[in-house]
Design brief:
By secondary structure, the chain is of the alpha+beta class. Helices cover 28% and strands 32% of the residues.
Length: 240
Amino acid sequence: MRLVCRALGGRAFVAADSTGVVGASVGLPLGRTGWLGGIAVSPARQGCGMGAELTGRTMDWLSAGGAETLLLHATEAGHRLYTKLGFSDEGVCLQMNPSPDGFPPVCDPTDIRDGVAADLPEVLELDRLATGEDRGPLLRGLWPRGARVAGGGSGLTGFSLTPPHGPAVGAVVARTPGGGMALLGERHGGVALPAANSAVLDALVRAGFTESARTMRMYRGPRPPWRPELLHGLFNLFWG
């Protein structure tokens, strides 16, 4: 939350009473799209409309900043609320974690190296193709620390970028399943990805990964022209 709010221009909204903070939500603006995440209400205060109020405040703030499309990952508990607020289902996303006796995904040989600042224009182009969004503020804020890129002399074919905190693999975007699996094979930890990327999902299952969580990606407004088959790893199930 600190990264989203302090470095990337996001904003947190909280609800509090005499006991302290009892609810929160976060918005992350990305030009014409905006993500909602971290929407949570204390169990003792659930069912009184607080979640809807926090979500509405976040939606209004993102829309006022120019976001035409709003996106979020809905858990089963929140799905009904977001449907009432006008969000539509777009596709299931999964958190896949390695089993104790698992092994790294099998990958095709691919030239992989550390990412450098000069790669950023190609990274932004590939990311825009895969997500249908302008995630420039997010990627510029993180690149190139911990970044890896795939591709030979013909140009960049994929990249991976770890989140600043936690053991998760992070974002992995590639033009081919082979390139994506090569980048995934270098990382260790859980992987979040769209279920529609069946080639990578099947490979992870064969490598001993098991599902630990799932969400429904939902949108409100014009549907982004995303390509889930190019998304081999998401940053997380919070802001995609």
